[in-house]
Amino acid sequence: MQIRPLLPDEMEPCRSLVRSVFDRFEAPDYSREGAASFYSFLDSVPEQFAAGALRIWAALREERLVGVLAMRDGCHICLLFVDPGFHRQGIARALVQTAADFARENGQKQLTVNSSPYAVPVYHRLGFSDLSAERTAFVLRPCAVCFSRAFLRFLCQGFSVSPGFRPPLFQH
């Protein structure tokens, strides 16, 4: 598996992967307005990526895009999606490790994410802990009802990419 920055010509396959995984696993738990808000955000990703507001990493297996992670503000994960055929193979863990390394190298001490209810157990397995109870969050712009989210934090210095491996501690 290869983890590397997303290339501009991979934006449409990236968005297609995100949308298909969202539709299958997350959209059923959202209100119509919440799903519409997510799709609106997804439509804005190419522009944000081109402007440098989002850093996106791609996970590839045999040149096939199988996972993506997008981060804003150097420490906030705003997209983490893996092709269902590749779940539970360490792809999300490798993407989060890449984001944690980037955050650490740029002076950040933690990663944050607003997680969908579906993904909370995944983030817990990746080492994130709850910062607040589940709540309805407004995404991009106020709307009547958006996502029900749990705000999670991952302290970068406690993260390990695989059992037994510990990256160097972040310097404070």
Order of helices and strands: EHHEEEHEHEEE
Q: What value does the average pLDDT take?
A: 80
**Based on DSSP secondary structure assignment, what is the total number of beta strands?**
8
Task: Estimate the global geometry from the Cα principal axes.
Answer: globular
- Counted by DSSP, the helix tally is 4
Spatial separation of the terminal alpha carbons = 32 Å
Q: Please state the CA-atom Rg, rounded to the nearest Å.
A: 15 Å
Structural class comes to: alpha+beta
Largest sheet: 8 strands, mixed
Helix % is 25-40%
Strand % is 25-35%
* Spans where pLDDT lies below 50 across 5 or more residues: 137-152, 156-172
In short:
The protein is of the alpha+beta class. It has helices spanning 11-26, 32-50, 91-105, 120-125; strands at 2-5, 54-61, 64-72, 76-82, 110-115, 129-130, 135-137, 147-155.
Structure report:
The longest helix is centred in the first third of the chain and has 19 residues, at about 30-50. Mean pLDDT is about 80; it is low at about 135-150 and about 155-170. The chain has about 170 residues and is of the alpha+beta class. The protein is globular, with a radius of gyration of 15 Å. It has helices spanning about 10-25, 30-50, 90-105, 120-125; strands at about 1-5, 55-60, 65-70, 75-80, 110-115, 130, 135, 145-155. Helix 1 packs antiparallel against helix 2 (about 30-50). Strands 1, 2, 3, 4, 5, 6, 7 and 8 form an eight-stranded mixed β-sheet that branches. About 30% of the residues are buried.
